[in-house]
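Board notes (copied after class):
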Amino acid sequence: IIASDPLEARRELFSERFNITVTADNRRVVENSYIVVLAVKPQQFNEVVAGFADLIRETHLVVSIMAGVSTASIEAKFPDIPARVVRAMPNLPVHIGAGMAGVCKGMHAQEVDLLRAQRIFDTG
């Protein structure tokens, strides 16, 4: 697992608490991942995705937890490929291992993509 955050304090927290690789570079995350989770505020979506959209390939699964941003809006950011997008809406108890997430697939996502996204939020 590799995660990015612009704030050094948050990167240190993620690294120490979850023992994962961290970076401030979203492009590095995409280059080293096959599942990319978009966990940004909706108003940051355009700017953040513009920084790495050219790196997304058909082999990537893009999972979004952004409220109010449709799978079609996300797919539109990757016009040259049939982007595999899944939208997830985890509820608050998922943070303590007692929640659940509703998921839906975009136009090009497959059932296996939906299952992979569900496993990310599985608290069982």
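Comment from the instructor: The chain has a mean pLDDT of 91. The chain is about 30% helix and 20% strand.
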